[in-house]
Amino acid sequence: MKKRSDIKGILSLILLFALISTSIKADDIQGENDSVKMKFTAKEIIIESFKQNNNLYIQPVSASLLTSKEIKDFNIVNIKEITSLAPNLFIPDYGSKMTSPVYIRGIGSHRNAPSVGLYVDGVPYFDRSTFDININDIDRIEVLRGPQGTIYGRNTMGGIINVFTKSPFKYKGTNLNLTAGNYNNYQTGLSHYGNVDNKVGYAISGNYLHSGGYFKNTTTEKKADPIDALSTRARISWRVQPQLLMHLIMAYEYSDQDGYPYRVLHKDTGEIDEVNYNTTSYYCRNMATNGFNIEYITERFKVSSQSSFQFYDGKQGLDQDFTPQNLYYVDFYQRQQMYSQEFNIKSLIEGSKYEWQFGLFGFHQNYFQTNDTNNLTNGVHTIQSANNPTDGFAVYHQSTINDLFIPKLSFVFGLRYDWEQTNTTMYGTKLTEAGKPLNDKTSFSQLTPKAAIQYPFGKDGLAYFSVSRGYKTGGFNNTAEQKEDLIFNPEHSWSYEIGSRSGFFNNFLYLDLSLFYIDWENQQISQTKTSGKGFIVKNAGKSASKGVELSAQVNPSRNLSFQLGYGYTNAKYKDYKDYNAATGVTTTYDDNYLPMVPQNTVSLSANYTFDINQKWLDNIVLNAQYIGAGKLYWTDKNDISQDYYGLFNAKVSFVKKDFSIDLWSKNIGGEKYNSYYFSTSSQHYVQRGRPFTCGVNMNLKF
Fold first, then answer.
1. Range of 234's domain?
2. Distance (Å, whole) CA 141 – CA 327
3. CA 646 to chain centre
4. What distance in Å separates the CA atoms of residue 663 and residue 391, rounded to the nearest whole number?
5. pLDDT per residue as tens digits for the range 242-297
6. Closest CA to 627 of 663, 675, 593
7. What are the residue ranges of helices labelled H in 603-686?
8. Into how many domains does the chain fold?
9. Has this prediction a pTM greater than 0.70?
10. What CATH number is attached to the domain comprising 607?
11. What angle do CA 245, 251, 255 make, to 5 degrees?
């Protein structure tokens, strides 16, 4: 009851502020309308993605946009902190940077390949271990909800997160940012943007972050989760001709963190012990990403080329028994090299009755891993390794027919064909002979169609209905114990969505509403191996996910705005029977909720600017935010859960021209909740969410 009261109180407060604000005299509001812009108006949602049309607002897709101002206002530091800021988006923060599952509308994965795609400046991030990136010098983040397989292809069943860094043709000057907070949190960032005659633009930035950790290990008497992270980025943009533009973007990240502050959960009583194990657990990651984009633009069409390369290696050390005893320790190493090339051509004729685009995509990904499990009681090492090179190819097309049958009615149809082949060379598994590898290969192909109708109404309204196919690739279980478990196949879905969005009262109010239903088949589910030790992926289930999403923005005046984002997801198994080979027991989970999927996500925020206009101070900016998620279940049995929880965040900024000081705090009420749960054969574990944090930022532009 307390959680419901919190939500009702926040909603009532926002409504009260909105009503008070409407009492402002009409002549005070007049003249401000030019600056009171909806976040999704055509001028505000112009994007840089070479695949999407320039204005998402007029497309039949559910989308959320975080601008650079909102990223700063909400004090977002890493990708995990955008959770719930888009309806039905959930990114649990636990473990380390290696553990970065993303869920949208109930679709996600925390053990194998991702179900939600991540692109940064057009570069695809294929592996979940690369997802947790620091957010610095970001121009915007857009979240596309629902299957995006027709344009983006594999592993986008849940949606896409597009991150765009700042362009030197849009930003100029030098920025210095310093942060200090409790728990020995420090961060510094420096960036510079410039261009020569608006023809050659250049940008360089660097960011360093240190956190002393939030959770104490009672055995070592040290914090269990400190981190040091360094990131750099360089960009060169060149207008070779008015029609020809090139971008070269290079990024590097290094992180060294202790992590996995897991605690024993006593299931019967609900009591949770302190972090209590004797050997440091850690994750170190090196990651280099490069993208080269060429665009040739004419009055009738645009041709784009995107060349991408990403390398990362990561090393994990894990006290697998999570006790003060020397029982098990695991060393895990992973390395990836990914090359991709995409060509895209699309029409640009404004007002045309027919719009089109074609694309070709190819990639090569080489993934290597080795796993060394050390039984400390007898000194026996079990070493398993696998090398998985994968090659893929895709061709896609999308057409839009405007003014179909009646004026303004549009029909959209798209189709994509994906093919890929993956190989494996394994050592040390139960399927291999001593000293000899197991070699195998498999291939998959998939058609992902999409169809939609849309109808604009009023000044800026849009209604649409869409049907689309989602696709997630298959692969190998690198630690399989039986031949029949070696390969798992792709999973796929059909998604049905109806939605509408519009502004009202001269952009005083903006509403975006969508309803969806997803039918999910051949579902990849993590199951216990025959030995009872570890997990493999099997195509074992069918599920359905349905829900509703609402976004609202209220702009009472130039200085005051409110935002609301709400998502409801009902994601359940339709057909799932789990056979445990270790016990010989079959358990039926039909009609159970899918694990790690919050039924509700809530985001409420308010922003008010006081105009001081004094020699020593221009503005004071107040930001208040409420983020909520839950209820969610941790297991297929639905026997362990996390109730709905909400976090209050706030920030006040003092601004004088190009200098500002921010005072911020997160989880002001010190809400206690579990951000993760897992179990072994004999024990249950959880990780607590981050406690109350606060700090100060200093920002200088020159």
1. 9-701
2. 44
3. 20
4. 49
5. 999 999 999 999 999 999 999 999 998 999 999 999 999 999 999 999 999 999 99
6. 675
7. none
8. 1
9. yes
10. 2.40.170.20
11. 165
